[in-house]
Structures are given as structure tokens and as C-alpha cells.
Automatic annotation (TrEMBL), chains A, B:
Protein name: Inositol monophosphatase family protein
Entry annotated with the keyword DNA repair: no
SUPFAM superfamilies: Carbohydrate phosphatase (SSF56655)
Keywords for the protein's UniProt record, in alphabetical order: Hydrolase, Magnesium, Metal-binding
């Protein structure tokens, strides 16, 4: 690992710990909640304030980088050239509003489109998952994580987004039927943590770049596959129907997709 | 609270703490897993050993009581007369096997069919939820819980069992649509804990007596409603399609059920 990336990592961890403290402080006061595209797509004053805080910090750390933020306080990205920071200030905003738990702060750093560093901060449990190729591993705070076992779809639980299950998008119901069962947690970041810890073998959801940027870096580093539901690389400038899975489960799921001649 | 019930409570807490230690010790060794009715209905050596241990302890504490245990080491119950202990040695066995997390040990105590004391032990977080009318409240270890806010279905998240959602039993999909969203955790006990903590407003699942015995006592004590999906009292000698919900959300859900003329 180069000295530069090590310094970057140290600066990011410091920034994220400050961000967490600010979020916890703001949670003492009533939230201001607004709807974005619909009544289940929320944004709060804390999402917005935290994105502003993080992006200001990132500008200091890495002044020439591009920054893509969920709430729109970053740059208008048209390419992934150079260094790009992708920021989700509060992932799982519905959980944040309704549970004050089970949400994450996430940052992914890409260089010319290739993931380099990822950060998923489980705020309420105060565990910061971080790593990537530039660190040569993934850590939960100071504890290095082993790669999750490469289990088949039939041998594990799979995370899912509720709407995909209900509307049976991309054979979700058959995939769940073959698996040991589904779990629905309401936060892509918390789902990624479950996969890193081997508690689920994968996750399927329609995701924006900030929902998956950090997770893709961390999970790839642990040998877990991240692709579109039909096995292609993600477009990190757009939405994707994302399939995260162990190698074996990815194969099992792609076979279910291919068996559908209508695709 | 009578002296008798207080002594009973002290003895049960001691028994459950011993049971937890034994479960943690057994988790160091490989599990023996067997299928019951199908490949998603599991039992392990730990479920069986823990039920035997708990029932032996209960026989010492309360020799004349009847005991109903999930794995069949208790009595064959034909009535709820007298004192009845209902035991789930490992609730969320699939989570126990696949995650080594998110499972519970549960005991409910009924007198002539009326819930008196309930215990849900979140084993991995080491938090014992206990209470009921004989204790005059509900506690998470030593911390007394406030009643969850009585929110409407539209204002909160609802726990669900995966199969009910996929097969759209009892208008599950409409109920979820009206709510803020569904969560699926894979353990009735962990779902009950979420409701006690106000993180979800309810839970709908097909449950056996041992899945709901403790939860019914604890949640009723906190003002949360427990009924069948059509609003009737549970039959604690049989399976029920169970609706657990805040008062307002129960009303909203029963209205959705009643709007279906085919019922």
C-alpha cells in the first residue's frame, strides 16, 4: 500500500468518526423529514447536513477529486475518470427515521472507475467496516475479516429488498425458494455488513451508485461477487438491479435468470 | 406482586442464564442439524438439549405444572388448566444454524389460560426481556420499558414472515403497501423485541404456541395487541395466523381484512 492511500485512509476514518458524532448529536433533536420521489423515499435534515459535512471534509482531503453525493451537494458526474468519491450520508433513511437504528454512513473511492477503498459505518453499533485493494483486506474496526465461506444458494440466507420480492422482479421468489430463506433489513449498508460477516450469502436490490459504491469495494476484496442481476459489471453512474453473492450462489442465481427465456 | 411469583421470577432468570451459558458452550462444537417437516424447518442438537435442560429446571421449580415444549420433551397438553409453561428452547433455528445470531430462548407462563410471565432472551446480545402482569411491567435486564407509541399502520415498519409475503396470505402485500415497509428477521422472538423497542409496530406470521407464548404476555403488558389475523384471541393449544400490532395498526389491518368479502 502506498503512503498516499494510507494517509487518505487515516484522514477518512477521522472524518467518519466526526460525522458519526455529529449525527448522534443531531438525533437528540426532532428530525425534519421530507419525501423525495414517494412516501417511502425519505430525506431528513441529518442526511443533508451530514452530506454537506462529509463533502466539505473530502474537499479538504482530496481537493481535485470528483464527489458524487446522494443528496446532490457534490458534483454532477458525467464520467468516472480520475478519483471519484461516492457518498451516502445516511443509508437506510427509513430505518433512521422509524428505528433510530440499522443505518449506515458509506463512502466508496474509485480511481478511473476501479474501486480502491470502501467504508461502511454501522453508526449505532459503532463499528466501522473499511478496506479494499489499497489496504489489502477488510477490517471491522481493528479486526481483519476472513472471506465469507463460498456457499451455494441452497445453503444460506439471502437479503432482499421488499418491493422486489412482492413484485417478483427477476425471479426473486424462485431465488428465495431455492435459498434457505430471505431476510429484509431495509439498509443496503447493513445488508453488506451481514454478508461480510457471513450471516447472509448475498443481497438483491435496485440500487443507486451511493448504495453500493462502498459495499462493492469491500465485498470484492473478500471474494464476494457484485454484478447486475444478469452478471454484468455495474454502471456506477446509474441505477442497477444489483446481485451481491458468493461465487457459488451467483452461479446458481444466474442460472435461474438464464432459465427464463423471456429475458 | 405476590411473593410466590417473585420467587418464581428469580428462579426462572437464574435458569435462563444457565441455559444461555450452555448454549454458548455448545456453539463451540459443530451442530447436528436435522430437518423436521421440510428443509426450512430445522432442529439441532442444541434445541433438543436446551429444551431438556429447561424442562428439568422447570420441573424442579414448579413440580405440578404442565410444560409444553417445541421439541416434545414436555407434556402432551389437552387443556390450559392450572399453571402451564410454554418453552421454545431456540426460536429462530434457521438463524441459529446459518448466522449464530438473531435467535432467542423463550418461556411463557400461563395460569388457567391467562398469560402471567414472559421471557425472551436475546442470546447473542445477552439481553433478557421479562415481565408480565405478575411483575407489573416489562424489563430489558434491569431497564424498565415504556409502552411503544400507538402509531397507525401507515406510520411504521411491520415485521413479516417471508412465506406469508410471497404467497400474499391474508392481504400481506396490501398491509405492507399501506405501512412504511416490511422487515423480515427470521425469528419471532427477535421480532417481538423489535416491537417492544418501538422499531417495528407489529408482526404477522403463522406461529405455534411456543413462538408466541412469551411475546403475547410481554406485549400485552406494554399495551400492544396480540390476536389472530381476524382479531380473535389466540388458541394457545394450536397454530394461529398471528397479528401483533399497536392498537391503531391492529384497527387498520383488521379493516383491510374485513374489506375482503371472500373472508
Amino acid at each position: 500500500m502506498s503512503q498516499d492511500w494510507q494517509q487518505l485512509n487515516t484522514a477518512i476514518i477521522k472524518l467518519l468518526k466526526e460525522a458519526r458524532q455529529r449525527v448522534l448529536t443531531k438525533m437528540q433533536d426532532p428530525l425534519t423529514v421530507a419525501e423525495k420521489s414517494n412516501r417511502k423515499d425519505l430525506v431528513t435534515n441529518v442526511d443533508r447536513a451530514n452530506e454537506k459535512f462529509l463533502i466539505a471534509g473530502i474537499r479538504e482531503i482530496d481537493p481535485t477529486a470528483q464527489v458524487l453525493g446522494e443528496e446532490g451537494f457534490g458534483d454532477e458526474l458525467t464520467s468516472l475518470d480520475g478519483r471519484v468519491w461516492i457518498v451516502d450520508p445516511i443509508d437506510g433513511t427509513m430505518n433512521f427515521v422509524k428505528q433510530q437504528d440499522n443505518f449506515a454512513i458509506m463512502i466508496g473511492i474509485y480511481q478511473d472507475g476501479v474501486g480502491q477503498l470502501g467504508y461502511i459505518y454501522d453508526v449505532m453499533n459503532d463499528v466501522l467496516y473499511h478496506g479494499g485493494p489499497q489496504l489489502g483486506g477488510v477490517w471491522a474496526d481493528d479486526r481483519q475479516l476472513a472471506a465469507p465461506a463460498d456457499i451455494a444458494l441452497a445453503d444460506g440466507l439471502i437479503g432482499a429488498s421488499g418491493p422486489l420480492v412482492i413484485h417478483d422482479v427477476a425471479h426473486m421468489q424462485e431465488i428465495i425458494h431455492v435459498s434457505s430463506g430471505m431476510r429484509v433489513l431495509g439498509s443496503a449498508g447493513i445488508e453488506m455488513i451481514n454478508i461480510m460477516n457471513g450471516k447472509t450469502l448475498g443481497y438483491i436490490s435496485h440500487l443507486k451508485p451511493w448504495d453500493i459504491a462502498a459495499g462493492q469495494v469491500l465485498l470484492n476484496e473478500l471474494g464476494v461477487q457484485v454484478s447486475t442481476i444478469d452478471g454484468k459489471p455495474l454502471d456506477m453512474l446509474s441505477s442497477n438491479l444489483v446481485l451481491v453473492a458468493t461465487k457459488k450462489a451467483q452461479r446458481d442465481i444466474l442460472r435461474i435468470e438464464e432459465d427464463d427465456v423471456s429475458l
